[in-house]
């Protein structure tokens, strides 16, 4: 049950950017781009609350990185993803690693886990029902502009969002609401440590 929830949440987040046509233009506009990220989600499934945390790092220029998603519970469930170019590795819990290829339109192993912060605004704004600037603030010493809006793509992806964007158009923080308090989710993601060197290796014991 917990692993199903993890997979469903990832798919729901990826659907937010269903209108994406590729992220190479956005990356070229800002040059090399890499960062760490941390995401916290609360999912409401039939009235029960499940909490998930994702941490990782990714280099969007070289398409390599990793993420670890943990769902609270007894026992806790963990999904690990590694990407090296066109190759992907996934492992659920204590199981073995399974290798596949990146087939996403942006050549990513997981569009939700490795969402490119340089292209989120360009992908989201054309399909948003509302879009407004609410002011400016600071995140990690960087001045950002706060945008708020809403999106509706079928029943699975529906609700308000907030983005905090720097002067290069890179998202530093995002908050999305989907569904309602009975069956829905709230997700907050922060991008930080931009320019970090991302080093990953192919996991051993791959099937």
Quick one: biggest sheet? 11 strands, antiparallel
* Share of helical residues: 10-25%
CATH class: Mainly Beta
**Overall number of domains:** 1
Write the element-wise H/E pattern from the N-terminal end onward: HHEEEEEEHEEEEE
Tally of extended strands? 11
Choose one word for the global shape.
globular
In the CATH scheme, what's the topology name?
outer membrane lipoprotein receptor (LolB), chain A
Cα radius of gyration in angstroms: 17 Å
Count of helices? 3
Mean pLDDT: 84
First-residue to last-residue Cα separation: 24 Å
Instruction: Tell me what the CATH architecture is.
Output: Clam
The proportion of residues in beta strands is over 45%
- Which stretches are poorly predicted, pLDDT < 50 over at least 5 residues? 1-28
- Please give the order of strands in the largest beta sheet: 6-5-4-3-2-1-11-10-9-8-7
Structural class: mainly beta
């Amino acid at each position: 049950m917990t692993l199903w929830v993890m997979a469903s949440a990832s798919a729901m987040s990826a659907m937010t950017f269903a209108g994406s046509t590729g992220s190479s233009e956005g990356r070229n506009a800002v040059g090399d781009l890499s960062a760490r990220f941390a995401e916290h989600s609360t999912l409401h499934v039939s009235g029960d609350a499940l909490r998930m945390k994702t941490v990782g790092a990714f280099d969007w220029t070289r398409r390599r990185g990793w993420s670890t998603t943990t769902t609270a519970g007894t026992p806790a469930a963990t999904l690990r993803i590694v990407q090296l170019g066109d190759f992907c590795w996934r492992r659920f819990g204590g199981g073995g690693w399974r290798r596949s290829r990146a087939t996403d339109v942006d050549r990513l192993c997981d569009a939700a886990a490795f969402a490119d912060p340089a292209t989120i605004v360009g992908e989201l704004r054309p399909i948003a029902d509302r879009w407004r600037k609410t002011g400016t603030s600071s995140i990690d010493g960087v001045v950002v502009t706060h945008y708020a809006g809403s999106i509706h793509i079928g029943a699975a992806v529906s609700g308000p969002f907030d983005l905090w964007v720097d002067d290069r158009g890179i998202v530093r923080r995002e908050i999305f609401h989907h569904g309602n308090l009975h069956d829905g989710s709230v997700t907050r993601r922060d991008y930080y440590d931009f320019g970090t060197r991302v080093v990953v290796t192919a996991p051993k014991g791959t099937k």
